[in-house]
Amino acid sequence: DAKTTQPNSMESNEEEPVHLPCNHSTISGTDYIHWYRQLPSQGPEYVIHGLTSNVNNRMASLAIAEDRKSSTLILHRATLRDAAVYYCIQPYGQNFVFGPGTRLSVLP
Amino acid sequence: DAGVIQSPRHEVTEMGQEVTLRCKPISGHDYLFWYRQTMMRGLELLIYFNNNVPIDDSGMPEDRFSAKMPNASFSTLKIQPSEPRDSAVYFCASSRTGMGSSYNSPLHFGNGTRLTVT
User: Fold this and answer.
1) What is the arithmetic mean of pLDDT over A76-100?
2) Which of A97, A102, A106, B5 is 20 to 30 A from A70 via CA?
3) CA of B103: which chain A residue's CA is closest?
């Protein structure tokens, strides 16, 4: 099973950066790392994904370790709307195995 | 783009009744996935389709569950007969590409159907 390890929960203050870590020590050389988040009462939504180098998009940045065994999702300025469960995922065959994720709380 | 559309949003039924959940994927997406989410087991993949053909149904819990995709714009997940342990949120998702290691197309999820079986 392709499992990733994330902290159960994290807290951040509004308008401060947030760094969400993930360990994926079993990742293969060609697997992408994907991040999704799930807001309350909604389906998961795509955040970002990457293979080796750091990635940026309008939602977040993804920093991938050189050995690819870990990565960090960076929200540059957390807002109240960013409170959600964040999932770090590596593919398992044709499947995405969602772990319990990290529940991010954003304090005003 | 209306996104993935699921119906109904909520379904309450009695044990033993048949339940049908519906999904309209995003136009042009060749892959469709059905997931189930519970507090105990999190998000689990039940089945997925490629070009309307079921590819992997190993996550379907038992024979009471069946899924169909008669065309590119519609899929159903049916539970017959339903049981209280089927209570969960069921999500449909679609994607342009599959989830393999060369994947570079995001999964788009619907807002789910919350099923309660009493």
Assistant:
1) 88
2) A106
3) A32
